[in-house]
Amino acid sequence: MCRPTPCCIGQLACCCGSAACSCCCGCCPKIKQSTSTRFMYVLFFLLVTIVCVVMMSPTVEQKMRDHIPLYNDLCEKLNAGENCSTLVGYSAVYKVCFGMACFFFFFFIFTLRVNSATGCRAAIHNGYVHCLQYRCVYVCVNLFINLCVCVCSDACFSPSDRFWFLKFIALLACCVGGFFLPGQDIFLEVWRYVGAGGGFIFLLIQLMLLVEFAHRWNTNWSSGVNDNRLWYGALAMVTLVLFSIAVGAVVFMALFYTHSQACLLNKVFLGVNGSLCLIVTLLAISPFIQRLQPKSGLLQPGVISVYVMYLTFSAFSSKPKEMLEVNGVNTTVCVFPFNSGSESDKRIVSIVGTVIMFGCVLYSCLTSTTRRSSAALRVCRNSMPETERARFCFCLGDDTDDYDEEKTGGGQNVLYDERGGTIYSYAYFHFVFFLGSLYVMMTVTNWFHYDNHKIDKLLDGSWSVFWIKMASCWVCLILYIWTLVAPMVCPKRFEA
């Protein structure tokens, strides 16, 4: 049983100065070095994103005014404007996300063409220093940190010195620096279009990963059918559940998001998207496609259909509300019951929408950097084997089993899985997080309609958000259709 011993507490206090993989107690499960590195960058990303959400929350802003003594005087001393207006709202989110984007873009440039995990740049990316020109400076900083905050110095000094704390300080400096940029009005206008472009690219990557995920799921589970017929039953059951969800979503939206006398746009797009899902399903199991791709089945179109229906529902929820005069009274029509006007209902929808957004962003950032997904996006040249062992948690499978195990002093068992080279592209990893920073910035500020926008109104009406999500539906379907017909259009690229 793991107890919070002084040594564990010391390691936790020194987490910023030691490698992430060794700041946990020995009772924690084994962790790979590459996983621990990505976890720390995800933690940085998540912390900044939470700050952005807080900045857009009127509830937090009101609580600060009510409970912080001399709040206005403090804001004036900080030159933050009346009621700290420059530290909240969409402009503050733009500046903070600008700093986070600069942080990841710097590491993207810094780690370009890094193929070995033993080099200086790879060591800095992974949070430790082998470079003599940096080591002396870092040892002094790490010594100061240990003397100030650590209660167990033996646990803090590991064989290889790390500097996650310095990275966190650099990220913090970048985020704070955005508030001191000259020409704030010009910066906000230009950065808005940069964010929109990066957000669109991130959406495309997200959709491509979804298509790759659907194909990989079907391929992995189909590979187990020959050895165990239960895999066939699992495929059939999951496929049935997926199509049931898709059909249920169509019925649900037909009931709540259409009206006999209004919502013509909803009727048209629901019919179009539902018909397109049916077409791609029939195309996937057609004899013509089966000759080109024998592994094509119903599971892939099931995944695509569910996601398209989710995007359609999200688009309808994001569309400005329509009013209809019923018996002389203006009535809001074609809205979800949770979006009928109650503040508690709106808060629930906003929280759910925010959590879904975070989940999609983190999944895209992490899965897009594996060797298999990078190959699907044509980022890596290394091809992955077509056959693999069937398993339920296929998406969490190891990229490699070639690793050494080392026990860090008092901490977790670390699996050094990059002895023979990097297992993912460091530069591409940071580039995806750079795009993810822009996507979060645009989503939290409601894309182009950012004036007076608050996180509580994340799902309120906006035509820009509506068209972005609706276009995402069609792009997703086009990408999937392309994967079906690509072997015919480019046969040489798909020859074994």
TrEMBL record:
One of its GO terms (cellular component) is plasma membrane. InterPro entries: TDE1/TMS (IPR005016). It is found in: Cell membrane. Signal peptide: none annotated. The chain crosses the membrane at residues 39-57, 92-112, 132-152, 164-184, 190-210, 230-256, 268-285, 348-366, 426-448, 468-490. It catalyses: a 1,2-diacyl-sn-glycero-3-phosphoethanolamine(in) = a 1,2-diacyl-sn-glycero-3-phosphoethanolamine(out); a 1,2-diacyl-sn-glycero-3-phospho-L-serine(in) = a 1,2-diacyl-sn-glycero-3-phospho-L-serine(out); a 1,2-diacyl-sn-glycero-3-phosphocholine(in) = a 1,2-diacyl-sn-glycero-3-phosphocholine(out). One of its GO terms (biological process) is innate immune response. PROSITE patterns: PROKAR_LIPOPROTEIN. Its main location: membrane. Keywords: Antiviral defense, Cell membrane, Glycoprotein, Immunity, Innate immunity, Lipid biosynthesis, Lipid metabolism, Membrane, Phospholipid biosynthesis, Phospholipid metabolism, Transmembrane, Transmembrane helix. The keyword Cell division does not apply. The keyword Transmembrane applies. It is a multi-pass membrane protein. It comes from the Eukaryota. Belongs to the TDE1 family. This is Serine incorporator 5.
